[in-house]
Amino acid sequence: MYSEAKEKSLYADGIKLLQKNQFEIEDIDLLKEVINFADYRYYVLSNSVFADVEYDTLFKALQKLEERFPNKITADSPTQRVAKGISEKFQTVAHLVPMLSLDNTYNADDLIDWDSRCKELSGLNEIEYCVEPKYDGASISLIYDHNQLQRGATRGDGIMGEEITPNIKQIRSIPLRANFSNNSLEQIEIRGEAIIHKEVFTQFNAQRISEGQQPLANPRNAASGTLRMLDSREVSKRRLSAVLYHVSYFSLKAGQVMPESLKTHYDTILLLHQNGFPTPINEMKRFRHIDEVIQFCHDFEAGRDHLPYEVDGLVIKVNSIALQEKMGMTAHHPRWAVAFKFKARQATSQLQRVEFQVGRTGSVTPVAKINPVAIGGVMVSSVSLFNEDVVREKDLYIGDVVLVERAGDVIPYIVKALPEMRTGKEIPIVFPTHCPDCGELLEKPEGEAVWRCINISCPSQVVERLAHFCSKDAMDIRGMGISNVKKFYELGILNDIPGLYRIDWRRVHSLEGFGEKSINNLQQAIEASKTQPLHRLIYGLGIRHVGETMAKTLAQAVSDISDFYSWTIENYLPLEDVGPKVGASVFDFFALAENREIIQSLVEAGLNTRCQKQGSEGTSATFSGKTFLFTGTLSQLKRSEAEAMVENLGGKIATSVSSKLNYLIVGNEAGSKLEKAKKLTTISILSEEQFLTLVHP
Ligand SMILES: [Zn+2]
To answer: What's the pLDDT score for residue 410?
Structure first.
């Protein structure tokens, strides 16, 4: 898309722009170009060039200039992606070419039959096939007119879809302007799939659960539901991705001849790739023998769990477009393409009983116990039913035969009961009126779907709260998982959160399974938690409706946790994403004397309760709280010098490449760390020079 020289000059332009104090009308075009470049690197290549704050600075500069000079706003300006609000409803639009579904194959024999039919229809002995992943998301169609994104639509019934252009613009990897270098195209329709990466989906659901909402069933439903949301601001929060894998229509400008690059399927995708579109080009394979196709299908299926997104099969297409046109289509399917479907990740089983589990906020969750059944290689015997409404909606009875689905890393869920299998002996599911653990009368506040035990000392809640405090995303105290917490609690070694910091280790020594080494590790993990940043502590305290993101917002708003003691509800409302419900919940938490006592005990134990403000004296906004890792040999700095620079500016040095890493700085002869980092979408990969520019902007 960008030549190396162009990338360098755009990067230099970006740095120059960042050094400016004031922006003028003549900066608009360059700002757009640099931001589009940054978007492409981040969203398409997953390899960002600017730090988040730097990107925001450029973006805000462009927004301000456009406010001053509104006639300079163009439809392809990156600011035009900004979600505008709620649309009334979607218009129905006709597809330029019907979006047909694909015929399915399930095994090698089906593929061999299909190959024979293709040869028969074409009269050829050998056909080149293209194989690509079948993404499990929601189909989309995009029309670019004279390079400009004109319309985005859902598949609908294949003939008519819904126009969802404002939502499509929230998918940052989709270019608003297609700079087809070969300028012979007048109009082009591109098809593909909107998907949600597994990691994004898991985080999204964790957030929903922590805010007391129901999790979404699977990434596919989440993607298709998101595309059809009426409020594009909500869409932008869901972090959709896209893969574009088919050019379904194009028209040429008068007098232009068909470019070479549109003669095979592979080359059309390559053309899209070269023009900045997200495509499956790196996953695409070409084969001349169906045996090779079959082998590839089996290998790919075996590795499906390791992909960052969900696939439900592979698509095999005839590569030559002329041949595709010759073969044509039936009323339902094209004859030149077929789907190879992977084994279903659904199974039926019998619902044996329902257990009611008490969570850390006292919520009582029904959990279905089913006859153990293997789904996609994992035994499933326990499936959450979330709340009473879900049980009623799905009309479940004990004894029912139920359809269970498990998609990749996603938690299994019950799709539906099969009422036709009922014998008449099924029993209704009865919700308890009292807490199954402490016996307290359960309550269900108006407008909520969840029954709660409001006894704050209910043993299940105490154990869950402690385990939450120690969990990886909160204070990250390794070794204090739910089973150890429960054991310590039952033996009276640990009663509450401050108790973690005054455990009587002599008693732990006498327990079975706790050797010198594991006790040492535990002690170290507890000690290390004292220096965790404030937002982890706030999240760990388990305030209702406060997930990880909200905890960060809250932490950034104060210099010490005790600042909240003097806040009124009105102080919370201006914070991002805080509504009256969240505001009241946080206010109530800090108003309670018991909670203040807990915090006081934690201060006395030496825990950090202060917030390192971004951009405050001595630290840099780019570095504060961010993690850095160096790999390869640096030419201008010693490794130790570079690491000290990071730490002096408020950053941290990581020990390995993981999704927690923010920056990887690459010297000469970098090896596996670089390869690994390239696969993770969130890491910025910098050269030594770029790193120095961050240090001395
Ligand atoms: Zn209880």
So the answer is: 64
